[in-house]
Write a structure and sequence with these properties.
Layout (H helix, E strand, L loop, with lengths): L6 H7 L14 H11 L21 E5 L2 E4 L4 E4 L14 H11 L10 H13 L5 E5 L2 H16 L3 E5 L12 E2 L6 E2 L1 E2 L6 H4 L2 E4 L11 E6 L15 H12 L2 E5 L11 H6 L5 E4 L10 E5 L1 H4 L18 H13 L2 H25 L3 E2 L2 E2 L2 E2 L2 E2 L8 H4 L4 H14 L1 E2 L8 E2 L6 H20 L2
Helix pairs in contact: 3-10, 4-10, 11-14, 13-14
Bound molecules: pyridoxal-5'-phosphate.
Length: 446
């Protein structure tokens, strides 16, 4: 572990190291104020700014297993886990060793490597629909490449997406739509020209849309994990497969969250539906920047240099990220998934008990190793309209009560809760106690 600065040591040493993070010297407030002066909003991914829950973020000094520590030395049981990227837990020894070893051989070459070959082989072995795999640096790059590839392969422009699904910061997929009906996309954010989403159709989740021959691809989160956690309704994924086949459109599963989290075969293995293309990110990099597109060889061969659809990346297939990815996939055995699923069930159960005990209405749906949270009365939702009925104000209070007790959840009401190998039963016992106090506090302050 890298030693942290502490006040006495830093002052005594007159430390001016460029990489010094000032932990133990400055407060979260001071350091976040400095960040805000240098970085828009003080963050590099907008949700981290706490805008939807209020307050200011804690700055992480280090993390290990299930825990993160902020720059003031406060410890949190972490349910963010880099939004699921660190499935083995923070600073897992196998990842640390793989990265340390790889880094001594150079950090990027601009030439092919055996390691990226091995990671592509590891993905092919586990996900049969991925006959060929191309790497990039993020899930966002993966979804934008998949859209370009689908359009290039089919010679069509139209892309169908689902309300409440999230596919990263890809212009064509940042479309806003009405929640109950199919709508042609309007820009979902400033800076996306109308033209970029003019061919993006947004339809309700868990209903199979009727397609026509203008559709290049249907892009879907096979388990929706960015509007809470919503399982596909029986027949939904099969229906999409059949409808895509009927009109000659490609089915693209965005498995950036579900890939290698819902078992080695991802959501497609779990539900037995094969997409034409799959996007990956998060888990396959072990917490390092990575993304990938995999799919049928015939479709993937449309990518340059074999075909006419351009793709490139200076750091794509990065030797450090692929080393971490190989270490992760090597450790994710069926036993590990079984254990993670047990922990996900236990997390949902203890949170359900904590909320019920305090009289706080909430449901915690579980799909495999993924846990969601919806605050309010009623059943777990099946689509975006249902998901947005969650009580965001109460979520914000519960979030801050949990944080005060030492449990870090995502600072937004629509994110999943992530367990990893660090969340053993002792950690979950402690979490249960903290959650009970936090739920009681949430109710007391409402
Ligand atoms: C996180 C996520 C993305 C974007 O991945 P980045 O690595 O953040 O660019 C895309 N799709 C889904 C389903 C995601 O959860």
């Amino acid at each position: 572990m890298i030693p942290l600065c502490d006040q006495a040591r830093c002052e005594a040493a007159g430390c001016t190291a460029a990489t010094c993070i000032g932990a133990g010297i400055a407060s979260n407030d001071e350091l976040f104020a400095r960040s805000q002066a240098a970085i828009p909003g003080g963050v590099n991914s907008s949700i981290r700014a706490f805008k939807s829950v209020g307050g200011r973020p804690y700055l992480v000094a280090r993390a290990e297993g299930a825990h993160v520590w902020d720059v003031e030395g406060r410890e949190y049981i972490d349910l963010v886990q880099s939004y699921g990227a660190v499935i083995l837990g923070h600073a897992h020894p196998a990842i640390t060793a793989a990265v340390s070893e790889a880094v001594t051989g150079g950090t990027s070459y601009g030439a092919p490597t055996p390691r990226e070959m091995k990671l592509a082989e590891a993905i092919r072995e586990r996900v049969p629909s991925c006959e060929l795999v191309r790497f990039m640096n993020s899930g966002t790059e993966a979804t934008s490449t998949a859209v370009r590839l689908a359009r290039g392969y089919t010679g069509r422009d139209r892309v169908v997406i689902f309300h409440g699904n999230f596919h990263g910061a890809t212009d064509a997929l940042l479309a806003a739509g009405g929640s109950g009906v199919a709508t042609l996309g309007l820009p979902g954010t400033a800076g996306v020209p109308a033209g970029a989403v003019a061919e993006t159709l947004v339809v309700p989740y868990n209903q199979v849309p009727v397609l026509d021959e203008s559709v290049a691809a249907v892009v879907v989160e096979p388990v929706a994990a960015n509007m809470g956690v919503i399982a596909p309704a029986p027949g939904f994924l099969e229906g999409l497969r059949a409808e895509c086949d009927r009109v000659g459109a490609l089915l693209v599963f965005d498995e950036v969250i579900t890939g290698f989290r819902l078992g080695a075969g991802g959501a497609q293995g779990r539900y037995g539906v094969s997409p034409d293309l799959t996007t990956f990110g998060k888990v396959i990099g072990g917490g390092l920047p990575i993304g990938a597109v995999g799919g049928r060889a015939e479709v993937m061969s449309t990518l340059s240099p074999l075909g006419p659809v351009f793709h490139a990346g200076t750091l794509a297939g990065n030797p450090i990220a692929t080393a971490a990815g190989l270490a992760v996939l090597g450790l994710l055995t069926a036993d590990v998934y079984g254990e993670l699923e047990r922990r996900a069930q236990r997390l949902a159960a203890l949170l359900t008990d904590a909320c019920a005990g305090a009289g706080l209405a909430a449901t915690f749906p579980v799909v495999g190793t993924l846990v969601g949270m919806f605050i309010g009365d009623g059943d777990a939702p099946v689509d975006f309209a249902g998901a947005t009925a969650t009580d965001e104000a109460t979520y914000a209070r519960f979030f801050h009560a949990m944080l005060a007790e030492g449990v870090a959840m995502a600072p937004g009401a629509y994110e999943a809760l992530f367990v990893g190998l660090g969340h053993d039963d002792a950690v979950l016992d402690t979490l249960a106690e903290r959650a009970m106090r936090a739920a009681a506090m949430t109710v007391a302050t409402s």
